């Protein structure tokens, strides 16, 4: 089941006991509903020995672009690739997967949708990816695939994770029975991601003495204060690595460590990565609707405890900080179930019936490692622990994987799905295991700059 508000937002978002068909379609308008986009036909060149099909097709929000590539030695299986966040621009672009050549060399076909909307529209990601998978025979003139798998990165990891959920199978307009899923650097808990962004920006402003008194503060107001917030917390904000100061900045670092999964290798480097600091800090002042994806505010921190020490109880300074920070209560039912498609923000409940293999970098500051801890808890609570393998990679960046790391994970997943032994993974929840300086070495295949090398075998 989902965690309490202390770890995310509210248990009130749990599924209704009623059948999905009895839940009314939400009538509250969203800002996102009025947005329009343009699907851009891809111009990929087929790799040697493959045929490519690309164009535009109807999606859930409007038109979506697509690309499909099939090798001459096609093995009859299809991999759907779900791309990550593509910003808020008007053009919808298909992104080719990093494993494109590898998949084709093994005989797999792949397909990817641009989705029919930008912004954090995971609903469009799920529905349009599924629609493209179903249209494969029509668009290519080929037989229906014998198996369809899905891989996604970042927001696409959310798409891939949600695509194999029981709720998605019940409510999606476009239904696909995937054989396995590989979400990497993914949003594996849709509530926590926006809890994290709200918590970090609030804590940073409060430590700087510029915390808001009302919610929402407004992005323009927050942006005007941000230079002073940074000056109070960092001695340097020159890319690529920032440096926090020894007082309020150090407190912010430890608050972030605790909010993102606890002590683990490479966290400090990820915290100081200027590119990702700016990505997270740039979300401050928002109204909790995920820039109009939801009809109401999903963010809340009523029971969140902000700590920069590790003692059993908060220090007097921490108690004063928690008493002074703005507290926000989510709106009632901000992410309602729908009858005509998956939710506006599709759920990742751990109710999976197929093999899932995830990968996550330990220092990821944008989509924190805690996603893996919450996903493990949800999958175990649903009785599906044997269907999940998780791997930790020693890197600071978001989605900073090497080709060999991704290929190894994919290869292990498809062997498992085909009836082989369950592959090995990492323990993502035991604090003492994560705090070991060698944590993540088992599946890391390259030493990144600034990251301690793994011990020699």
TrEMBL record:
Entry keywords, A to Z: Hydrolase, Signal
Region forming the signal peptide: 1-21
The keyword Hydrolase belongs to this UniProt entry's keyword annotation: yes
Keyword Hydrolase: yes
GO terms assigned for molecular function: hydrolase activity
Protein name in the entry: Alpha/beta hydrolase
Source organism of the structure: Deinococcus actinosclerus
Biological classification of the source: Bacteria, Thermotogati, Deinococcota, Deinococci, Deinococcales
């Amino acid at each position: 089941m989902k965690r309490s508000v202390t770890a995310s937002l509210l248990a009130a978002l749990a599924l209704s006991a009623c059948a999905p068909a009895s839940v009314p379609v939400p009538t509250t308008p969203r800002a996102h509903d009025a947005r329009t986009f343009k699907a851009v036909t891809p111009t990929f060149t087929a790799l040697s020995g493959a045929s490519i099909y690309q164009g535009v097709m109807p999606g859930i929000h409007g038109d979506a672009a697509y690309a499909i590539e099939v090798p001459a030695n096609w093995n009859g299986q299809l991999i759907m690739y779900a791309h990550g966040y593509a910003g808020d621009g008007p053009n919808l672009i298909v992104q080719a997967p990093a494993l494109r050549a590898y998949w084709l060399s093994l005989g797999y076909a792949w397909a990817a949708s641009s989705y029919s909307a930008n912004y954090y529209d995971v609903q469009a990601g799920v529905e349009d990816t599924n629609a493209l998978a179903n249209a494969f025979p029509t668009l290519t003139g080929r037989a229906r695939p014998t198996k369809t798998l899905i891989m996604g990165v970042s927001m696409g990891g959310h798409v891939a994770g949600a695509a194999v959920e029981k709720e998605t199978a019940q409510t999606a307009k476009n239904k696909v029975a995937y054989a396995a899923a590989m979400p990497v650097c993914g949003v594996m808990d849709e509530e926590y991601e926006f809890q994290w962004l709200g918590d970090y920006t609030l804590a940073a402003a409060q430590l700087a003495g510029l915390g808001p008194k009302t919610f929402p503060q407004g992005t323009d107001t927050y942006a005007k204060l941000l230079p002073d917030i940074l000056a109070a917390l960092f001695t340097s904000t020159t890319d690529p690595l920032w440096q926090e100061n020894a007082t309020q900045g150090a407190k912010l670092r430890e608050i972030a460590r605790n909010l993102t999964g606890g002590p683990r290798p490479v966290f400090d480097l990820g915290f100081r990565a200027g590119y990702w600091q700016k990505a997270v800090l740039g979300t401050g002042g928002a109204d909790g609707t995920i820039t109009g994806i939801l009809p109401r505010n999903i963010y809340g921190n009523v029971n969140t405890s902000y700590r920069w020490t590790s003692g059993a109880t908060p220090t007097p300074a921490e108690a004063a900080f928690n008493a002074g920070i703005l507290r926000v209560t989510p709106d009632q039912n901000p992410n309602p179930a729908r009858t005509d498609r998956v939710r506006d923000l599709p759920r990742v409940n751990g109710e999976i019936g197929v093999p899932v293999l995830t990968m996550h970098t330990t220092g990821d500051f944008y989509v924190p490692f805690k996603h893996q801890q919450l996903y493990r808890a949800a999958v175990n609570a649903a009785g599906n622990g044997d269907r999940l393998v998780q791997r930790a990679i020693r890197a600071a960046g978001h989605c900073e994987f090497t080709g060999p790391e991704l290929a190894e994970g994919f290869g292990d997943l498809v062997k498992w799905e085909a009836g082989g032994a369950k592959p090995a993974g990492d323990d993502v929840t035991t604090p003492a295991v994560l705090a070991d300086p060698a944590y993540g070495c088992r599946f890391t295949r390259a030493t990144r700059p600034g990251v301690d090398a793994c011990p020699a075998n």
